[in-house]
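Protocol step 4 of 6: structure prediction from sequence.
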Amino acid sequence: MPERTVFQSMSQRHVISLGPQANIWEAACMMTKANCGSVLIVDTAATLLGILTERDLMTRVLAKALDPQKTHVSDVMTRNPFCVAPEILVSDAVLIMIERGFRHLPIVGAGAKILGVFSVRDALPREIGAAVSLAEFHEQVNDALG
């Protein structure tokens, strides 16, 4: 069975996004309503500015006791997030996530068109297993090379 691409594996096909002036409370409500772990932050031309994730809410808002109704998403988002093309294989995307500590990867197609967000939840166990094996191999090679 051929491996799926990140675009094929996405559980949600619509883009969840907000403008940079939205507040954290609005973002959290949107994420809860859409049952997703991230929201993309875009400007009026639909250019990707950043991503706000559940982890960002925990570490950059709650842990710092910021007021969610007074804090803008642009103040705590991850700017210029690492993005992948829609045709990248799921195991390759999961490998990127393992090696860089990400849980979400924006998918951007031709002309910088935002297509969605890939989450590790979108991967099948065999795809995760392939990525973990590759990550372990990379670690062994790095150890051998010093």
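Step 5 (inspection) to follow. The chain has a mean pLDDT of 89.
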